[in-house]
Every structure is written in C-alpha cells, then in structure tokens.
Design brief:
Helix content of chain B: 25-40%
Oligomer: heterodimer
Radius of gyration of chain A: 22 Å
Number of domains of chain A: 1
Strand content of chain A: 15-25%
Structural class of chain B: alpha/beta
Largest sheet of chain A: 8 strands, parallel
Distance between the termini of chain A: 44 Å
Helix content of chain A: 40-55%
Mean pLDDT of chain A: 88
Shape of chain B: globular
CATH class of the largest domain in chain B: Alpha Beta
Largest sheet of chain B: 9 strands, mixed
Shape of chain A: globular
Radius of gyration of chain B: 32 Å
Number of helices of chain B: 42
Distance between the termini of chain B: 77 Å
Number of strands of chain A: 12
CATH architecture of the largest domain in chain B: 3-Layer(aba) Sandwich
Number of domains of chain B: 7
Largest interface: A-B, 39 and 57 residues
CATH architecture of chain A: Alpha-Beta Barrel
CATH class of chain A: Alpha Beta
Number of strands of chain B: 37
Low-confidence stretches of chain A: none
Strand order of the largest sheet of chain A: 3-12-11-8-7-6-5-4
Strand content of chain B: 15-25%
Low-confidence stretches of chain B: none
CATH superfamily of the largest domain in chain B: Thiamin diphosphate (ThDP)-binding fold, Pyr/PP domains
Chain lengths: 329, 1191
C-alpha cells in the first residue's frame, strides 16, 4: 500500500502533513513527526509584525536601560548581531533540516512587501523546501474594493516568486467573490499550491465583562465542509497542488479531502488533542481504509469525488443547496 | 620598536585594563562593584564567547558571593598554580584585605586591577579617589598607578610581568570613573607583544610553587613568637629588588612599544624651584599646567609616581631636580588624624632619610595637600593655585584644593577662570536623558572619529543619581594630539540639547564659548523656536553670538522608521555642524559606520539608516534669530519658600547642580541629613500623568497601593472641607454605607509622577459607556498642572485620617495611611518601592530601617534629596545604610539597642514609680502594643511620661527621659536586595534569623543585582540570563524561604504585590506582629528583567500563575496553636513557565543567542517549578506536628 503523494513538486511519503502550529517550535517534535509518518512539516508561522514588534520592544528596553545610570551602564548583551525572531526561526529550519529527511516548509505571515521578500529569501537560504504564504488580511477598510484586495494577494505572490526558487503555497481565506477565478489568477501569479483555508480570527464578546474574547478553539470535523467544497470544485481545473486544512481530527477527514482532490491534508488540532504519535494512527487508518476499498495508492482515489469526477456535478452547486434546503423543510 | 602594525582603539580604561588582564590570566574570580564591574563583565563576556588568553585557553571566570569570597578564591587558585586575577574597587578592596596580606606574605605573583574609588565614611560615594588603594598599602602588595586609559592598558601588562619576576603581588590601579569610564584613543598591545613580554619559565615557576599532593608541603602554618617576626623579615630582599625589576620591565616595554615609563617621572623645568608630586589621572592635568606655567616664565615641575609601593628612595632622588625649593605632595585621599596623607608622609620620610644619608644636600620645604576626593574636579586652575601657594614663604601644609573649607581654612585660593590653551581641541557638550541614547551615540561618535581618522578623541559622561528621568551630559573632545585633560569641559564650541524642555531647566549655555554652535532638538520650526526659548537662553545666544540650529529629531526619527530614536539623528547633526571633520567627510564616515554596524542586518536596515542621515541633513536648519530678547526669564527657583532653611541653603544648591560651590561649613559634620527632602524637588519627569475620574472610581485603593513613587494619595473627610476647595478639586461621596456626609478624594502629585502607568494598569473600574476610559487615565500634564498645584495644596491641608479608625487589613483601607516614603528617584514603574511605601504606611512612625547598599540605598539615601519622610507629628522612619555585606548585623544591632533601652527604661520606671505613680508605670510597662489603637495609647502615655520627666531633675529621671521613646514598640526592618540577602549578606542574614530576635527582614527580590547592572545572584532563576550567567543560569534558584522555615521560629512569607496585594499586606502585618524574626521575600519586577514596566503587575501575576513564585506564609504562631504553620496562598500553576518567562528579555535573550540551550534550560526550569510546587503542596497539607516545634 503506497501513501506517496506529491505536493508542489515535493515527493512525500504520506499525504498527511503537520500544519503550521507551535508543536514545530521544537526540533525534537519535528523528529517525532517524521518518525510517526508525517509527509512533511509546515513550520510554525513567522509573523512579520510580531518580529518587528518584538524587535522594537527589545530596542526600547535596551535603549531605556543603556547608559542611563553610572553604576549600571547596561543590563543586556548587545543583540545588534542578531535578527531578533528571524534568527531563531531560521535556526529552527536549519536544525530541522539537519535532523529529518521529510520536507520542511516555512510558513510566513507578512505585512510589508519588504517583509515578504526578505523573510522568504532567508527561509530559502536556511534550507526550507518550500514556503507557505499565510496571507491573513481582513479588508476592514470599507473604501478598499474587491479588486484592490485581490490585487494585493496577487502582488504578494508575484513578489515572492520573483525572490525565491523554492515552491510557494498560498494559504488563503475563502471570502472572494469568485474563488475559482481567484485561484486561477493566483496560479498565474506563480503560486505552486493553494492551502484551503485559513481560519480567521473571529472574535467573540464576553457580555459580563464587556470585553472582546480572543480565545481560539481547535477546529472540528464539521468545519471541513467549506474547504471540501472548494477542493472538489477546483480539482483538475486549476493546475496547482491543493492542500486541505481545517477540521482534520482523524483519517476520515483525510480521506474525504483526498477524495475531493487534495494532494495533501494538514492537521494540527488532532495532534494537540492526541499527541504527535497520532500521526501514525491516522496513516494506519488511511492505509486500512485504502486496503478495505481496494485502492493501491493515493493517486488512485484522489479527486474521485471532485466535481469533475462525480456523476452529478450539480451536487456541488446551486441544485445541491436547494435540495438541502428542501430536506430541512 | 616592534614592526607590528599599530592597533588603534577608542575604549575606556576598564576595557583597556581588562583586555590585557584577561589575556595573561587563567582564572578570574570576581564580584561586581562600581566602577570596576565592567572589567569583570568583559572578562565574563569574552570567556562566554570563547576568546582565548595568550596561551590558547579560555580563562575560567567565576562570580563569587562577595569580594571576600573572590579574594579567597583568587588565593586558592594562586596557591595551586593558576595565573589568577580579580577586579575590584572601594569596599570590595576592603573585603579583600585579609587575603591580600596572605597572598603577599606567601610571595604569590598576582595582579589585582582596581578602579580606585572613595570609601564609605560620612556617606557612600561611587566616585573616584585613592582612599581604597591607600587602605591597601599596608598589605604588602606593590602598587602601580596608571594615569590614563593608555596607561591602564600598558600597566596591566607591566604589572603582570613584574609580579611574575618579583613574586610580589601588585595592585594595579587607576582612577575610578575618570580613567575607568573615560573613552580615549589608544594603541593596543597585540597578543604577540603581550606574549613576548612574559617568559614561560616564570609561568612554570609559579605553577611549580603550587600545592601538589605529588610533592606535598604545608603553607599557611600558625607561628609562635619564636619565629613569626623573623619570618616576616624574609621578604625584604624581594621588596628591595622590586623597584629595579619594575624599572627593567618598563624599559623592556619601552623597547617593544616606544612608550616609556619610569617609577617616578619628572617633567618640567630642569631648574624647577617648585614641584608637585602626584599619582593617578590628576598628574596629566598637572603636567599640562606645568608646561603652560613654564612657558610664562615660571620654574615648575612635577613628579608623577608610578610605583607607589615599594616606595623607592633612590628612584625618587634620581629624578628630583637639585634646584627644588618647595614641594607639594598631592594626595587624592584623606587620612583623618594622621600627621599627613600617606604619600606626603612617604615623600617626607624619604627625603629626610636622604638628607640624613647625605644623598640630599638640603631639605626642600615639603607640604601635603588633598584634592579630587570622590571625583571632585581637579583642573588646571587648581593646579596653578597649588604652584602659587608654593611660591609663598610658608606654604600651607595639609591644604585642600578644589573646595572651600571655611571651617578649618585648609583650602587654597585659586582663580577658576584660569585655563590652558584649548584652541587645538573641538569640544562638545551634549545634554540628554539617560533613556534617549545620547551617551550611546556619543560613544559611537568617538569610535568613528577616533578609529577612522588621525584625530585623537576623548569622551567622558556624567550621569545624575536618579534612576528615573536621569539626565546625562556627554563631554567630547577631539584634537590632533593625544588629549591629556582628565577634567570636564567648561567651555564648549558645540552644545547640543537633546530634550527641548531642558532649555527651561538646565543651565547649558554657561558652558558655551563665544561663537559656539548650539544645536537644539525642537518640536518647533526654525521660525517658531525663538519665541519658545526663555529670556535667559535668548540672552546667552545673543550675547555669545551663538550659531543656533534646530531639528525636529523626533519627527525625523519617526518618519524614517527609526522607532522614534533620536540619537542617530542628533549624532548626524553633530557630524554635519561641529567642524571636527569637513562636512562631506563627516557624513561619509557616519555612513561607513552605519554599514559596518548593520552589516549583519542586511541592506534594508543600512538603507533605512542612510535615509535617516539624509533626512536629518534636509531637516537641519540654522535659525536667523533677532538680536533682541523677546521672552521673559523663567523662574529658576529650585524649591518652594516653605522649604526649611537647610533645604533652601544646601539641598537646593545641590539640586541646581551647584553643589561644588557649597563650603565645608554648610555640610553636616557626621553625615546626618534631614528626612523627607524629595518633597521639595519637583522633578516633573513625565509629561503624561494620571488623571482621576471620580465618577467612575470605586475607591478600591489599588492605584495608590501600586504607585512606586507615592504620588497617588487618598483621604476621606467631612464634606464641609469642600467649602474652601479650589474650583477644580475633585471628590466623590465615599462608597461606604452610613457616612452620608463623608467625601473621598484621590489626589495625584503630578510633578512627582514618573509616568509609569502602573496605576492605570491596575485600575479595575471602567466607564460602562466607554470601556476605554478607566477611573484613572494618563493624560497631558501641562493643561492641568496649574490647577492641580492648587488642588495639592488644598489636599495637603485636609488632615490625614485617624490611623486608629482605619482598617489596615485591606488594600482599600491602606490607601488612607500616610506614606512616609515618597517621590524617590527609583525607576519609573519600580517593583521595589511599593513595598517600602507600604512599610512606611503601616509602621512608619515607629520604624527603624537598616538598608543594605544597592538600589534601595541609592533611591533611598542618595543626595541631594531623600524619600524617607516625616509625618505631621514629626515622627517617621529612621533610616541608615551601613554597607552591602553587613546589613543584617547592622539591623540586628538596632534591635539590640531597642531591646536594651526598653530594659533600661523599665528599670528607671520602676525606680521612679513612686514619683510617677505606680498604676501609670504599670500601664506603660505592661502595655500591649499590637493594634494601632494600643500603639496610639502607648504613644500618648510616653508623651505624658516625657512631659513629667522634663520637670524632674533626678539622675534617674534624666536617664529615663533619654530612653523613654523606646517604650513605644520599635519596628526594626532590615531591607535590601537579593544580592545582599542571598549572596554577600547571607551569613549575617542567616545569623539574624537564627538569633531569635525581633528583626524583620524585607528582601526586595529582583532576582539579579539591579543596581550594578544585572549580575547574577543566587536568586537568579534557572534559564534566565544575567551578567556572569550569559549562557543562561543552569543552577537552581536558592530557596531562601525554605532555609528560613527550617529554623521553625522564623515567620516567613513570599509575596508579590502585583499578584496578590491583599496577601502582601497580610504578610507584612503578620510579620510585624510576630514577636520574633521574620523574613519576607518580595517579588520585585525590575528594568533588569527587560520589559516595559507598565506590565510589571501582569508579570507578577504570571510569576505566581506559572508557579515560579508561589505565594506562601509560614507563621510560627500557628505552630504554637497546633495548626499547620505553612500556608500556600497561591493556586496551582495555571500557565507554563514559558508563558511567564518569555515576556522578559532576560529569558528571551537566550532563545536568540542560543536557542538550544534556552530550550534545555527552560525544560529544566519547568521541572524545578513542578518539583517545588509539589513540595509546597505537601507541606501545606501536613499536620502541625510535622513541623519544627517552638520552644
């Protein structure tokens, strides 16, 4: 039984990837991920604003406390030789590459054009096999038109692709007027893969304290439907790799996503809940299901339930919606 | 001369000395002390980077618990054959003295590098003189004095070679701050040069003399009257040989480097009639002045002493011109009661001996004088004053110069206007804030110019003694020849003011020479700025024909992405305007320096800095000012008319920066100063201050509780008080039932606020209609200042609430207690001072404080103004600082006095009971003094007693009157930081606890040596970085609480006011009420932790929530009641240690510099936290009988 898959040109031993999460902050964990059958690991995200904020914070602290008092000319070592945050991240890539054979994909969450370019280059230099560009952007400015938003995405992709040679995946949100067309344009801008979908930070209110709650919950299996829909719709129509993320708690979701057309499926929540060895369980369950269904390889069933492969393509479109509504009645 | 290419550097004296010391030693045992700390820190930093000594090994640098410990370790390492050194100063050297006798007595080669500093006498001083090294002159160590940064570097090597050759250990010293902290251009020794000077056989000989079980011997015997004396005399031949050895080494050194030194160096007229003899940095001033005097026809000279011990008669005679008629020996020390200062006596004895031996034909007139104590300026004008004195028929002996001694009239007159020719120098003065990077930028400027051009450079930096809003003045000189001017700039051709508001507060332009450039960082444009200047400033600009330039550096910095940092902008202006280099060259140099500095950060950062440079030049404008003063003079009155006379006549003069002008008669004779003088110093450090919103406030008292500077105060009062209130005075009905006519006011003392924001952070109340508005919010001070000044005056006249009617047991109640610790110079947001304020509120009117040296003694007792205050009845905390190491013993002594004098008082009371009335006497003797009401009653009784006694004349009554105050129970607190409690003072602290006496110990635990720059203590937690733990501390933090608990009868608490203010309050009250020793470990957030202290309370909360700082109380009283005395006051950890730790740079640094080590140490630290919590939890669930019984 072969679990091999290919993701934006990277040969993988399993279609199950670890998505960007804090577990990958520890190289030991990455080794464990490989040992338990992860196809690749997307490293935790490098947040540009966090780095800038942290750097500014450090600079602020250092300047406030340096040469201010005759008995204590300074308190901290000179960090001018270090790129706060970045160095640490790049070191993580280097260490991971030294210790594992599976591909290591850097995850970048930028805010400025320079940031996207600089950090992508640095990740490439540090040995990353690919970059996942996490465009977390809420167009809160109501003066901004949809075409401006779209242009922003495309510009980022083009900029990064001009800067690096390694493949670039785009992790995006689903809220485009024309998601399908947008996918095509992203491909044309140079994207090698799409990761569907980014989970937005969606605030809640605490009605007793009258404050905004900023907690984040693990994704649940019932959240897979939106990415499942779009993977199934895009499969075969846009010539780039598709990665599914969100709601993956077991091999069941992995299978569903691959049936829809995903080249790879990413999970983090399941590992937080069950531990890194759960990757082995998911791989095993995937293999068992394939054995039961008589599939020899991932490719043999990938996309088999995508829009272009099912007998009733309208199931993914308006007719399906009407049918469901009628069912509810 | 060597053909080696010259290595040029611009560094300070500490680095210059440490550079060599590190390379020629294998072991450095050290302990931080100002101003020598930098040497030890550099050694540690180099070792952590793996930099090798000249033999290819990395020296082992070990921080000890005290200088006494360092000296012991040095001794041990030397005795086993390691080349070993240490770096110290002042009290540190005093603690090393016992070992120094041993090291010298055993003829052990070693060099101690000392940044010479004053000794604590009538007051402590961190600044430079020779008192410490002079106190070490009897140890048998040779003494070699450097006078400049270059010499500090060179003599470090000369000393090392000489000690190995002679076997006599050497104190190599240079002047603290003046040399240790002066940045100057020098020629560095290469490793090859250093190596070539140290023969291997001497190193091996030293090793071979080490203790070795393979061929054992005994050293360090106890000797009897029969042989000890003879034994002491065995060393004479070594000392006799030493001067020639040093001379020989100096000659070898000269051959190698071209820099020639002598044991005694004469310069001046060959036929000089008047000479001075001096050592240390002051000698450069004398040499330069002598040149000038001789040019004007005088016949003067100077002998600079390099090797002070052994003091070589022959070498001194060799350089003494035969023509000399009078000699002034200048000592930078004070030896009260002696026939003269040490070097004066040495010279006198030497020349008398020479006369007796016929080596000298006639004895010149020899006088001695003192100068420069505690870095007091020593200028050419003073030097001339000395030479003028020597021209008199009977020059004054035992004179002082540089001060006005109007009591015993020792001081010499001199003309302060006398100056040397300074035309070849470009001199710049820069006025900045400690926090604005001015000093850093200036150090960088010196480096750029000193290391990239042929110009010589000198930089010296003056800081004030406050830790918040501290001002700095940078003194920069550049010139074509080596700059030998170890004194401050008095006339500058460039003055830079980096903070616009200084124009109203600081007299800067008095230092401007005619036609100088005045650069002003101004929020106002070139067209607006003139009218914003005060009359005095305008007048100076016009009178001196200054060239005035302005730049809005803050805006330029912001617009060019420099994170609002103005230092690079102002530095660029200096390069552009100063004329030190041609403008184009200057800009080229600054850009070159930027490329070098930010090479590793990438082109983007370099470009950003280039952009800032270009934008600076584009925004720098010369002001074409009118030649007429258009503004009124501002009020430069320093203190209010209401201030006491002493404050007006003495304190205010110091505050205004004119303390040098105070004569001896204005000083107190024994170091006693009035309490509570910070109230007169309105520092106005912050432009943003808290503004109270009475309608939102819930009157919880949290803001007043956490305020580090006691600027937020609360009172409740009858509403009738408001009838006379100013219109803007704020109040609200008190939110307690049953008091319909009572009002509540929270008053902010705006001018004393440092803007730390803690009050806003802690405020729990928000406006329901506008959640961003709290009951207290930061706002601009200027619009409300005038009104608030009136409000404060009114508030002060509302009486403080009756202590016996306040519920002390709640944070809410505590706000109504008058703070008797106020407006200190502590850092904005300080985590220590809220504890001291609370201490003063709870027990202030009967409080004795023994304060260990450190942050708390600096913000608690550094002149000009001090924060421990006095209440309306004239009572308040009596505070003193002895030393760093002895504070527990010092405080214990205070307790013993209190107990003893209570006993004496009781004895006299019983003796006088018939006169005073038996029941009255019994009431006094048996008074319970636990609760505030009981204490108030006793205070009344004692007051009555004193009144009665004043009318009596019997000896018993007179004696009783002198001790009667002790009958009100004294609260004796021993206060200090973790450096004291965990390290240097631990032995004494342990003894005080074990004594069973009623002493209360408050440890302001910042987990690091905060005052001296963040060195590791035994309280520093695992995984945190600190100096001497740059790679992250791998060992555990000492659990001082558990050690104290092991005695059974010690009350112990671990508190964190930001996490649980109520528990802190409870612990302090329980500790005080307990009739026995108590220890409170108080978590104190600190700038040394590396984060914005406005988040200090959150971090305290996180420290507790992560289990790093579990709150606990161990109360022996409970054990006596057969209850479990161990109470755990914090819940189980709810967050991981990381979540707390990585908010702080002290932990975060390691994740940047060595992520793997950070990871490993953090895991280890988490395990330790888990284990500690488990242990505590078990203790909290035990039975009383599981704990030590109390006898």
């Amino acid at each position: 039984m072969k679990l091999h898959s290919t993701y934006m040109g990277l040969k993988l031993n399993s279609p199950i990837l670890v998505s960007a999460c804090t577990l990958s902050e520890q190289t030991d964990n990455i080794v464990k991920m490989e040992d338990n059958g992860a196809g690749a690991v997307v490293l935790f995200s490098l947040f540009e604003e966090q780095i800038r904020k942290e750097e500014a914070r450090f600079k602020g602290v250092m300047s406030e406390t340096t040469y201010a008092f005759p008995e204590a000319l300074d308190y901290f070592p000179d960090l001018d030789d270090f790129n706060v945050g970045t160095d640490e991240y790049l070191e993580n890539i280097r260490k991971a590459k030294e210790r594992v054979n599976i591909p290591i994909i850097g995850s970048l969450n930028g805010i400025t054009t320079e940031g996207w370019i600089d950090y992508s280059k640095l990740m490439e230099q540090a040995g990353a096999d690919g970059i996942e560009v996490n465009i977390f952007f809420i167009p809160g400015d109501i003066a901004m038109s949809s075409s401006e938003v779209e242009h922003r995405y495309l510009n980022i992709i083009e900029t990064i692709k001009q800067s690096v040679k390694i493949p670039v995946a785009v992790k995006l949100n689903p809220y485009f007027s024309a998601m399908g067309n947008m996918s095509l344009r992203m491909k044309n801008a140079g994207a090698d893969a799409l990761v569907l979908f980014n989970r937005f930070y969606q605030p809640d209110f605490d009605i007793n304290e009258l404050v905004i709650k900023t907690d984040l919950h693990y994704s649940e299996p019932n959240e897979i439907r939106l990415p499942l829909l779009w993977i199934a719709l895009l499969y075969g129509k846009v010539k780039l790799s598709l990665a599914a993320t969100t709601g993956v708690q077991s091999a069941i979701e992995v299978i569903k996503y691959i049936l829809a057309g995903a080249d790879v499926v990413m999970t983090a929540s399941s590992l937080y809940k069950n531990g890194i060895p759960y990757l082995k369980t998911m791989n095993k369950e995937l293999q068992d299901w394939m054995y039961m269904m008589g599939f020899e390889s991932i490719d043999s069933f990938k996309g088999s339930m995508s829009q272009q492969h099912i007998s009733d393509p309208t199931a993914y479109e308006r007719a399906n919606y009407i049918k469901i509504l009628e069912g509810v009645k | 001369m060597s053909s080696n290419k010259k290595i040029i550097a611009t560094i300070d004296g500490n680095e210059a000395a440490a550079y060599v010391a590190y390379r020629v030693n294998e072991v450095c045992a050290i302990y931080p002390i100002t101003p020598s700390s930098t040497m030890a820190e550099l050694a540690d930093e180099w070792a952590s980077k793996g930099i090798k000594n000249i033999w290819g090994t990395v020296p082992d640098v070990m921080e000890m618990q005290s200088e006494a410990g360092a000296a012991g370790t040095v001794h041990g390492a030397l005795q086993t054959g390691s080349l070993t050194t240490t770096f110290t100063a002042s009290q540190g050297l005093m603690l090393m003295l016992p070992n120094m006798y041993k090291i010298a007595g055993e003829l052990t080669p070693a060099v101690f590098h000392v940044a010479a500093r004053s000794l604590a006498a009538q007051g402590l001083s961190i600044f430079g003189d020779h008192q410490d090294v002079m106190a070490a002159r009897t140890t048998g160590f040779a003494m070699l004095g450097s006078a400049s940064v270059q010499e500090a570097h060179d003599f470090a090597l000369i000393a090392q070679v000489a000690t190995l050759k002679s076997r006599i250990p050497i104190v190599h010293f240079f002047d603290g701050f003046r040399t240790s902290h002066e940045v100057n251009k020098l020629e560095m020794l290469s490793d090859e040069q250093i190596k070539s000077m140290i023969p291997d056989e001497l190193v091996i000989a030293h090793r071979n003399r080490g203790l070795n079980p393979e061929h054992p011997f005994i050293r360090g015997t106890a000797q009897n009257p029969d042989v000890y004396f003879q034994g002491r005399e065995t060393v004479n031949k070594f000392y006799n040989a030493m001067p020639s050895i040093v001379e020989e080494v100096m000659n070898d050194f000269a051959k190698m480097t071209g820099r020639k030194y002598e044991l005694f160096e004469y310069s001046g007229a060959p036929d000089a009639e008047a000479i001075t003899i001096i050592m240390g940095s002051g000698s450069e001033t004398v040499e330069e002045t002598v040149k000038a005097l001789n040019k004007s026809g005088r016949k003067t000279g100077v002998i600079v002493v390099r090797l002070y011990r052994p003091f070589s008669l022959d070498h001194l005679l060799k350089v003494l011109p035969a023509s000399v008629k009078s000699i002034a020996v200048l000592d930078r020390t004070k030896e009260s009661g002696a026939a003269g200062e040490p070097m004066y006596q040495d010279v006198l004895a030497t020349l008398v001996e020479a006369l007796q031996q016929g080596k000298l034909k006639k004895l010149p007139n020899i006088v001695g004088g003192r100068y420069g104590l505690s870095s007091k300026e020593f200028t050419p004008a003073m030097v001339k004053g000395v030479y003028d004195e020597l021209e008199k028929k009977h020059p004054k002996n035992g004179f002082t110069v540089g001060i006005n001694d109007d009591v015993t009239f020792t001081s010499l007159e001199y003309d302060p206007a006398y100056k040397l020719d300074e035309t070849e120098w470009r001199q710049g003065l820069f006025f900045g804030l400690g926090a604005d990077g001015t000093v850093g930028a200036n150090k960088n400027t010196i480096k750029i110019i000193g290391e990239n051009t042929d110009l010589y450079a000198q930089g010296y930096f003056v800081y004030d003694s406050k830790k918040s809003g501290a001002r700095t003045v940078s003194h920069l000189r550049f010139g074509p020849n080596p700059i030998r001017a170890p004194y401050l700039i008095s006339k500058a051709d460039f003055i830079a003011c980096h903070q616009f508001n200084f124009t109203e507060k600081v007299e800067m332009l008095e230092f401007a020479s005619d036609g100088a450039t005045f650069l002003l960082n101004s929020p106002y444009s070139k067209d607006e700025v003139w009218d914003k200047l005060t009359g005095q400033v305008q007048k100076s600009i016009i009178d001196k024909k200054l060239k005035l330039y302005v730049i809005d550096a803050t805006t330029v910095a912001r617009d060019t992405g420099m994170s609002g940092r103005i230092n690079t902008i102002m530095q660029t202006c200096y390069f552009a305007l100063s004329g030190v280099l041609p403008r184009e060259d200057a800009i080229k140099q600054i850009k070159k320096a930027i490329e070098k500095t930010y090479f590793k950060k990438g082109q983007k950062v370099i470009d950003q800095n280039f952009k800032a440079v270009d934008a600076t030049l584009a925004n720098l404008y010369e002001v074409d000012y009118p030649k007429k003063v258009s503004a009124a003079d501002n009020d430069l009155q320093t203190v209010s008319d209401k201030a006491p006379d002493f404050v007006k006549e003495v304190t205010a003069v110091m505050m205004a920066g004119h303390g040098d002008d105070l004569p001896v008669s204005k000083m107190t004779v024994d170091g006693t100063y009035p309490s509570g003088t910070t109230q007169w110093e309105k520092r106005n450090v912050s432009d943003l201050v808290p503004i109270w919103e009475p309608n939102i406030c819930i009157q919880c008292g949290n803001c007043a509780y956490v305020c580090p500077h006691s600027v937020i105060r609360a009172k409740f009062y009858h509403k009738d008080h408001l009838k006379k209130a100013p219109a803007d005075f704020k109040s609200a009905p008190i939110n307690a039932r049953g008091f319909p006519e009572t009002q509540y006011s929270l008053q902010v003392y705006l001018e004393d606020c440092t803007g730390c924001n803690l009050c806003v952070e802690v405020c729990p109340a928000t406006d329901p209609a506008n959640r961003s508005l709290k009951a207290i919010n930061m706002a601009e001070k200027e619009p409300v200042l005038k009104a608030e000044q009136k409000n404060i005056e009114f508030f002060e006249n509302i009486p403080w609430n009756d202590r016996s009617k306040i519920d002390f047991s709640t944070v809410h109640g505590a706000q109504f207690l008058e703070p008797l610790f106020e407006f200190s110079g502590a850092c904005a947001g300080c985590g220590e001072t809220p504890y001291l304020k609370l201490l003063s509120q709870l027990f202030g009117d009967r409080l004795l404080v023994a304060n260990a040296t450190g942050c708390s003694s600096i913000y608690g007792g550094n002149l000009p103004t001090t924060p421990w205050a006095v209440n309306k009845e004239g009572r308040g905390p009596a505070w003193s600082n002895s030393l760093f190491e002895d504070n527990a013993e010092f405080g214990l002594g205070m307790r013993i006095t209190a107990d003893k004098q209570v006993g004496v008082a009781k004895q006299y009371l019983l003796e006088l009971k018939d006169v005073l009335g038996e029941s009255f006497v019994n009431e006094i003797i048996n008074a319970k003094q636990i609760h505030e009401s009981e204490l108030a009653e006793q205070q009344k009784r004692v007051q009555l007693l004193k009144e009665k006694l004043k009318t009596m004349t019997s000896p018993a009554a007179i004696h009783l009157l002198s001790v009667a105050d002790q009958l009100v129970r004294r609260s004796v607190w021993l206060v200090g930081g973790d450096g004291w409690a965990y390290d240097i003072g631990y032995g004494g602290l342990d003894h005080a606890l074990a004594s069973g006496r009623n002493v209360k110990i408050l440890v302001l635990d910042t987990e690091v040596y905060s005052n001296t720059g963040g060195q590791s203590s035994k309280s520093t937690p695992t995984a945190a970085t600190a100096k001497f733990a740059a790679g992250g501390k791998s060992g555990g933090k000492k659990d001082l609480a558990m050690q104290a608990i092991s005695y059974g009868n010690v009350y112990v608490a671990r508190v964190a006011f930001g996490a649980n203010p109520q528990q802190t309050l409870l612990a302090m009250r329980e500790a005080e009420a307990y009739d026995g020793p108590a220890l409170i470990l108080a978590y104190s957030h600190c700038i040394a932790h590396g984060y914005d202290l406005k988040n200090g309370l959150d971090q305290q909360h996180n420290a507790v929530a992560s289990g790093h700082w579990p709150l606990l109380r161990y109360n022996p009283t409970l054990r006596m009641k057969n209850q479990n005395p161990f109470v755990l006051d914090s819940p189980r950890p709810t967050i991981g240690l990381k979540e707390y730790a990585y908010n702080e740079l002290r932990y975060k640094v390691l994740t940047i510099t060595n992520p793997e080590a950070a990871d490993t140490l953090m895991k280890h630290a988490q395990e330790l936290v888990n284990l500690k919590w488990k242990t505590y939890e078990e203790l909290a669930t035990k039975k009383a009988s599981d704990f030590v019984p109390i006898a």
